[in-house]
Write a structure and sequence with these properties.
About 50% of the residues lie in helices and about 15% in strands. The chain has about 750 residues and is an alpha+beta fold. It has a five-stranded mixed sheet. Strands 11-15-13-14-12 form a five-stranded mixed sheet, sandwiched between helices. It has a four-stranded antiparallel sheet with strand order 17-18-16-19, with helices on one face.
Length: about 750
């Protein structure tokens, strides 16, 4: 096959253990860097003195080989030094402080990132490996060189595992196949990816590997003539087209053939595209010209063309892929790419340093960036190493954040999720009663965005309920649907309670008491069912909700119920009749009075036109489907509504004790000048009120006087008067008044 490499003769033990084994690969670095690397070699050599590998070689041969692989990628001096000393902290008791003193912090950080944690701290070998791997990934998220050194370390270990026990070889190979090979692939390190897969396959399934090797060698012999003929045809076609190209033959790896056979249940004879060709051109447009030449030469297979140049893979890979039908009818894959693309395809993220050596770093600035970003997302995901390992084996989710419960359980949430999303992810009850949140022990707003690694604690209160404003910032569908469901039920429940209260008062005006709603009382239950049927509702709950929302008038429903009760033999009671009429106003003789204490929910709203507060004379308008809207008695908007729709008005009154504060609107005319706003705020604060909103017209800023509207939070009408008094005393205030429609 064209394009296959010749292997260099194996160095002797003495050669492999000497700095000269590495020196000839460092020619791309300045002499000052090579001097520092030599110091690191001496340090590592002394640290590993007397240590040997399973093969009997001096241990230092391994760090030298790892540094050599890194040098092939043209990594910088810090990375080569870290590769030489990567086992010094773990195996030789060297401290990070010592490394910082000798070789400065950046190199020490790289070595620390590569160091496996002390295995004695963990209960099982698997947990230790997972923890070590987690630490490596965390370091890698800070510096990609760590993963490149780690992959070089694993690659050399895999190449030299022959002297280990079979089970240990198999375990390491399985870990390599599950963890390191996929990482190499995601970083675009295709050469390493293929070699790690091949070596892992060889150690996990030695018999299958051997059988496939023989089959491929035989097939290679049988197809040699065909490959040569295709190569001749292709070379001639490009020469005729005047296109300068480099053609390389490539063979599918044993593992990829084995994987294809397993996944598609094929025999070896049925795997057709074992070999293919790579066409390397000078410039990007020539990739498409080369594609045209090949499609003229052989017929392309429909549906087997992929353009990874226009849409690169996430790891930066770019090429054109097409499968053509050869003269013997067998499919042959061709890949067209430039020299730049070829380097990225083979070296991936490592190509960044290769480009730096060639003065073209800009071309791969974004190389592998999406996957590296996902590592940063995951870096603080879990304190449980084995669980972290499992996540990585499945895949790294770039659109998720991972947070902890206070008991260190991991929760995965979409990016942008808030403490409210987290609360509903735990349980709908936690979400419904959520009042505050702490992230990493610090209080945060409920709309704060969570980040991977955050420890989230939700504070709940028994009487708390979801806030409709949450719908504007929650990210999960679960949270959104639960909030909507709760609010809908809450509104219905409040409307039902209001409807029941209104119906009871309207019935009291007829001299009758409201029948029991208890389903155990069969006679009363039957009466309620008949009433709901008469009103056109499915059940009693729906009827009461509609009365509460103003869709049904309480007096009309009460009169019908009175007739039904009379039919059962009940007569009006004089005491109840007196109670029903007591407190009724002149224009509202048929309905009793609704008492407001501020605890009514969505079913009772204070009109925004007049903003009534306790102490104001008020009236209630039972809007169609809007619940009860409360206006002040002097509100012009309310009066117009009353003239137009008097039957929907109901008497309301304030309770003696209020459960919350209320908003009043105030107008202030003041002199423009410095510090005026501070004077206004001080006056309001002195009156023990809060400003909830301020608005001012744009023209006010250019005049000597300005008009301002304030929304203030007050207890009652007397409190409003106190605020007005305090504002009048302010030197900057010319006039102050309560805003009424």
């Amino acid at each position: 096959m064209p394009g296959l490499h010749k292997t260099a003769p194996e160095p002797t033990q003495a050669e492999a253990a000497s700095f000269d084994a590495l020196l000839h690969r460092l020619s791309y670095l300045p002499k000052s860097d090579i001097k520092r690397i030599r110091e690191a070699y001496k340090f590592a050599d002394e640290a590993h003195l007397g240590q040997f590998r399973a093969s009997g070689e001096p241990y230092i041969t391994h760090p030298i080989a790892v540094a050599g692989i890194c040098a092939e990628w043209r990594l910088d001096a810090q990375a080569i030094m870290a590769a030489l000393m990567h086992d010094a902290m773990e195996d030789c008791g060297v401290t990070k402080t010592e490394l910082i003193e000798r070789f400065e912090a950046p190199t020490a950080e790289l070595v620390d990132g590569l160091t496996k944690l002390d295995k004695l701290q963990f209960s099982t070998k698997e947990e230790s490996q997972a923890e070590s791997f987690r630490k490596m990934l965390l370091a890698m998220a800070r510096d990609v060189r760590v993963i490149l050194i780690k992959l070089a370390d694993r690659l050399h270990n895999m190449r030299t595992m022959g002297h280990m026990a079979f089970e240990k070889r198999r375990r390491i190979a399985r870990e390599t196949l599950d963890i390191y090979a996929p990482i190499a692939h995601r970083l675009g390190l295709n050469e390493i990816y293929r070699e790690l897969q091949e070596l892992s396959f060889q150690y996990i399934h030695p018999w299958r590997h051997g059988a496939l090797s023989k089959a491929i060698a035989k097939a290679r012999g049988n197809r040699r003539d065909l490959v040569s003929r295709i190569e001749r045809d292709v070379v001639k076609a490009f020469a005729d087209a005047g296109l300068k190209v480099e053609i390389q033959g490539r063979e599918k790896t044993l593992f990829s053939i084995y994987k294809k056979m397993r996944e598609k249940h094929l025999s070896f004879a049925q795997v057709s595209d074992i070999f293919g060709f790579r066409v390397v051109v000078d410039e990007l447009p020539q990739c498409y010209l080369a594609l045209g030449v090949l499609h003229q030469l052989y017929k392309p297979q429909p549906g087997r063309f992929k353009d990874y140049i226009a849409i690169p893979k996430p790891n930066g890979y770019q090429s054109l892929h097409t499968t053509l039908v050869s003269p013997l009818g067998t499919p042959v894959e061709f890949q067209m790419r430039t020299e730049t693309m070829h380097m990225v395809a083979e070296k991936g993220v490592a190509a960044h340093w290769l480009y730096k050596a060639k003065g073209n770093a800009q071309a791969v600035q974004q190389l592998g960036s999406r996957w590296l970003q996902s590592l940063i997302d995951i870096q603080d995901e879990t304190r449980d190493a084995s669980e972290f390992l499992e996540h990585v084996k499945i895949d790294l989710f770039p659109d998720a954040v991972y947070v902890f419960t206070p008991k260190s359980k991991i929760m995965a949430l979409p990016r942008g999720a808030t403490p409210v999303d987290y609360a509903y992810a735990i349980h709908s009850d936690v979400g419904d009663h959520c009042v505050a949140a702490k992230v990493n022990g610090e209080p945060v707003p409920l709309r704060a965005e969570l980040r991977s690694g955050d420890v989230v604690e939700i504070i709940t209160a028994t009487g708390a309920r979801p806030n409709p404003a949450w719908l504007s910032f929650v990210r999960t569908g679960r949270a959104r649907s639960k909030i909507r469901h709760f609010l809908k039920n809450l509104e219905q429940e409040e409307s039902r309670e209001l409807g029941q209260k209104m119906l009871a008062q309207a019935l009291r005006a007829e001299g009758l008491s409201l029948p029991s709603l208890d389903t155990e009382d069969h006679e009363a239950h039957a009466l309620w069912q008949d009433l709901a049927k008469w009103a056109g509702n499915r059940n009693v709950h729906e009827l009461l909700v509609e009365v509460g929302l103003g869709r049904k008038i309480a007096t009309i429903v009460a009169k019908k119920m009175a007739r039904m009760l009379a039919a059962q033999g009940q007569r009006p009671d004089a005491v109840t009749l007196t109670l029903g009429r007591f407190g009724a106003t002149d224009d509202q003789t048929t309905q009793g009075q609704i008492t407001l204490d501020g605890s009514e929910g969505a079913s009772v709203r204070l009109a925004s036109c007049c903003r009534p507060v306790p102490g104001d004379d008020i009236k209630g308008y039972l809007g169609r489907g809007e619940g009860l809207i409360v206006h002040t008695a002097e509100c012009q908007v309310g009066r117009r509504l009353f003239q137009r729709d008097s039957e929907h008005w109901i008497a309301v009154a304030w309770a003696d004790e209020m459960t919350r504060s209320f908003e009043a609107a105030i107008g202030v005319l003041m002199r423009n000048g410095k510090g005026v706003l501070a004077q206004i705020a001080t006056a309001v604060s002195t009156a023990e009120a809060d400003i909830t909103h301020i608005s001012m017209s744009d023209e006010s800023q250019a005049r000597e006087t300005a008009e301002m509207q304030l929304l203030i939070s007050v207890r009652d009408r007397l409190h409003v008067a106190e605020v007005l008094r305090m504002l009048k005393r302010s030197p900057a205030v010319m006039r102050v008044w309560r805003i009424k429609p």
